[in-house]
Design brief:
elongated, alpha/beta, 5-stranded mixed β-sheet, 15 strands, Alpha-Beta Plaits, Udp-n-acetylmuramoylalanyl-d-glutamate--2,6- Diaminopimelate Ligase, Chain: A, domain 1, Beta-Lactamase
Amino acid sequence: MSPSVAPPLLPPLRRLLAQPGLDLRLLTPESDLPAGALDAPVDWVHSSDLPDPTPFLSASQMLLTTGRQFTSDATTDAFYTDYVDRLAGLGIACLGFGTEVVRDGTPDALVAACLARGIPLVEVPYGTPFIAVARTAGDLVAELRFARDTWTLAAQRAISLAALRPDGLSATLSELSRQLGHWVALFDPSGALDRVFPRDAFTGASASPGSLDRAQHEAARMLRRGQRASLTVDDGDETLNLQTLGRRDQLRGVLALGGRTPLDLAGQEVVTSVIALAGLALEQNTALARARGHLRSGLLHALLGGQVELAHTISAELWGAFPAEPVRVAVADPPPERLDALTEFLELRVEERGGHLFYARVGAGVVVCLDSDAGPLLDDLVGFGLHVGVSDPAPYRSLPRALAQARQALERAQEAEPGIVAFDLISRQGVLAFLARTDASEVARAALAPLSDHDAAHGTALLATLRVWLEQNGQFGPAAEVLGVHRHTVRARIGQAEQLLGRDLGTFHARADVWAALLATGDVLAP
């Protein structure tokens, strides 16, 4: 179906010159003018014989003059050149010279100056009043405005009818593309391309290289800000228009349009109506997704409760099979304003990669079950600026244990910049290293206070000696070599430490307890 081309907002100069009864004659051949000079829009027609009428003119106007300003003795070729230069600098669409009022014919010097600056020059015969030219231009403007309003109403009606079709959103966007003659793309909450019309917009022979990449980059940037916004980008051969969809902090996506010509007021009105329809459709989809989300949460609780077969059966009817065992559990705790956007992103990934992942909201967080092929999804979650904890692989019967592992990994991840922490990293570091990262630090400092206080008061190194001695498995000789002292000095310091702590450091229990205290206070690095 061919595009429904909208009428121009203003009449082109060519149409005004062709109006019967005006008898306007072009003195500057079109072939000698810049390309498209006769297609420039004419906003209004103004008449003046002032040497410098530019303070009373605007761009895209047609100026009519009888040439009275050219009758003085000071009129030279340079005067004509300066006069035309001022008009060209303002951006007028055309200059009309009325003959047989002040002089016969049009001055050759004026014709030459207009040709030099690329301004169309027409001769207005004596029998054509200036007011007739102005009135004709006004009639053309009114005619086009009526046609434009008619087109706008027809376009909005066609789009509204498209919205009633089974796939109303796609039909609406397709109709918008047809009406405007622009490509139209919808990006989902993650910034990925959801759909585009016409479907070969970025692959056909007429596609502009880089248009998709530029639009996708800008859409992702707008979504990351999490605020409603619009943007117009001049991308070389195309003008891109982007508008977020949805409410503040609950953005549903970005609508992008691209075309060779910028959208005018009428086109923008049509786009505004589509934004309202698309936003409503996405909100409706979101309400449905929220209801499905509650069902997802129920299935997760069923899995955690051991009702694996029941959860599998329900999921198979709604979303397809669960991810194949063994699965890893990932836990993320997004800020409240990003929770909806994250779940919408996951819903899209479920549709794309059915059978590879399952997710559910639990409180203010999100739990994801993934098979071995869905690993790249975790990087996408980090792209949302999230901390993610991941469990070891586990069967569904052990899902509660895997969830506990993921939550412990999430706690560790939240100690650093957004990123992924796997539980096997924690398990490799040992139990004492994990305990040292809890709230045991104050207890540990109190336990070691007798040594730290003694060192501060007497300038000794009992705490450092104890740490090195434990690192050397309680051997005095190796500890002395590390510290650079005699082994009897190490033995004496350890004995003094035992007295201050009230512990026999010859026992395993005492040594393990002191080592855990050193870990908790950060006096040693986790193994």
